[in-house]
Amino acid sequence: MTHAAEMLDLYPHDLDGIDRAALTRCIEECFSCAQVCTACADSCLGEATVADLVACIRTDLDCAEICDTTGRVLTRHTGGRTAPTRPLLEACAAACAACREECLRHAGMHEHCEVCAEACRRCEQACRNLLATLG
């Protein structure tokens, strides 16, 4: 059991019908994606062709910030507060899609971009899955 799952299981009140598994997965994928995007940006900075990777670096860093914020807000997602969460999940999914597309442009030359694109795909899907459960 992950720490996110353990903490959600220990929450003293019902989550007002929110799918705990989808919420847990989304929290975990957001934090994972934030870490991978940050590492990808750092790896891009170390490449000899760094000038060609400026858009990728910026997209990575934007995605990392949005994913981190989404993960932190979702961690406090108790009591059925779906109104502020819905647009945040939509923004996170959009940031992940944009980052995935940008990283895929470089994946053939930079394996870290391929890894990042996959992390973004998983996070985007987790956000969309959680959105679907919110009704």
TrEMBL record:
It comes from Nocardia fusca. Pfam families: Csp. It comes from the Bacteria. InterPro entries: Csp_YhjQ, YHJQ-like. This is Four-helix bundle copper-binding protein. PANTHER family: CYTOPLASMIC PROTEIN (PTHR37310:SF1), CYTOPLASMIC PROTEIN-RELATED (PTHR37310). Coiled coil: none annotated.
